[in-house]
Amino acid sequence: MILGTGASPGIAMGKVLILQNEEFIIKDNIINDVEAEKFRFFKALEDSKNELLQIKDKALIEFGEEKAAIFEAHLMVLEDPELISSTVDKIEGEKFSADYCFKVVTTDFIELFEGMDNEYMRERVTDIRDVSQRVLGHMLGIKSVDLSILKESVLLVSNDLTPSETANMDKEKVLGFLTNIGGRTSHTAIMARSLEIPAVVGLGNITTVVKQGDYVIIDGDRGKVLINPDAENITFYNKLKEECEKTKHSLQSFKEKASVTSDGKKVELAGNIGTPGDITGLISNGAEGVGLFRTEFIYMNKDCLPTEEEQFDSYKTVLESLSPKPVVIRTLDAGGDKKLSYLNIDKEMNPFLGYRAIRICLKETDLFKTQLRALLRASVYGNLKIMFPMISSLEELLLAKNILNEVKAEMDTDKIAYDSKVEVGMMIEVPSAAIISDILAKHVDFLSIGTNDLIQYTCAVDRMNERIHHLYSPFNPAVLRLIKMVIDNGHKEGIWVGMCGEMAGDKKIIPILLGMGLDEFSMSPISILPARKLIHSLSYENMKKFTDVILKMTTSEDIERYIEKVF
């Protein structure tokens, strides 16, 4: 048995699929047989072509023309005469291995296309990268996996899962996640909870411990992983899985109930989503709205920026599906671990502190305006609230609001309908914003606390770094004091305050947040019904007294021990 961090609850069993997502190691080996090396190159091209044709045909049947068109573009790259002839010339002229020559040629093509003024040519970079990896994989004997089309149900094993991989995977066939790195607030953990599938992260070396096709049991509640378990363990975990399903079924009695304490204090339990497809999970778990729609997933797995119409359709779908419930949609939060290749953002030493989120939008105003226009057009179909991420100063907030007002004025001129009463808010995820939340609260209709980054920035802890992950604590007194400050400052200005970070769904912390007076808790759909059951059992007045005690404590350990003692 291996222990990691239980990132998403539940039991999953099945064969593992190990993702080899590290960069291939390509060496400049000198060759003796040029013809054999050329044959190896052409064989890899042919194998890649046959593979892509099969994937394209299946994608056309299962996902439609838009998905299939991606693979059509990849086939065109494979057949590009200049790419082929340049590689052959390099093999013949320099007598290096086929994989090295192909890697050099494709790298040159990528650099050339990235530097072009022609947008269409820049957009081909993603296609070339993907095709390059596929062909190199065949030459090196490393088979690539297309997660959008899986033949059987699997448990994914990887060093980590990128946002692009999770956004593109066939979610019906993925039973669970196992990763070397990550914690409860890593992207993989958040995505697993959103998909309601078990996950264990921070396992260190799981990619080398398991072998392709091993049968594995994931215990997402306890952070346990069993590799090729015996019959006794399989029987035990099958029973445990049945018990989990019974508990989950019993929670359905809270689905239609209001989120109200034993002494009548009402709060709102909303859900976090990444795509319109996540709405089903929200509805089945009794969400009272969307507290965070991460729009960056609309921008992923594309060769170019999504059009206004594409965005409008996504926002409209979500708003209509939940109307009249509130839907808080966050403007683009790219950068950090959510890279968009077509934006050509330079590599940074500290990407989480760099050019990301609102900083990109305030610079790329055309991109920002397109999204705001799509949002406003969709606002007539439901209860929209627009939220700006990563605000660190009043200047940024006012500039973002000014751009929004410019879009409204343009739409007024064009006589395009929108809801003029759309609420506008911002995320508090930067300590500077929390400290001046009394000022910021005067300029917005609501505040939403993004604790995943707020903890990271307040404690100066990289939440992906396993060596210091113990320092990343939601119980840190500084974090709790900042949250209380934000809630109080929002209420002084007569606005509501929500939370869309992972703390909002943590059963240990919900009593504290309730006592602080938090108005809206937004969490992974799977956490909503357990949270509602807990809130029903709590007294708001008692939680206020409980929170007063907590806020006087001086260490994370003391706070966590006290919570465990009381509950």
Question: How would you explain this protein's 3D organization?
Answer:
This protein is of the alpha/beta class. The protein is 49% helix and 14% strand. It folds into 3 domains: 2-19 and 150-250, Glucose Oxidase, domain 1 (3-Layer(bba) Sandwich); 34-140, Enzyme I, Chain A, domain 2 (Orthogonal Bundle), CATH 1.10.274.10; 261-566, Phosphoenolpyruvate-binding domains (TIM Barrel), CATH 3.20.20.60. It contains 23 helices and 16 strands. The chain has an 8-stranded mixed β-sheet. It starts with a strand and ends with a helix.
| Chain-averaged pLDDT | 90
What is the fold-level CATH name, i.e. the topology of the largest domain? TIM Barrel
> By helix and strand content, what is the structural category?
alpha/beta
What's the level 1 CATH class of the largest domain?
A: Alpha Beta
Q: Write down the Rg.
A: 25 Å
The description of the largest β-sheet is: 8 strands, mixed
Shape: globular
Brief synopsis:
This protein has 567 residues and is an alpha/beta fold. The protein contains 23 helices and 16 strands.
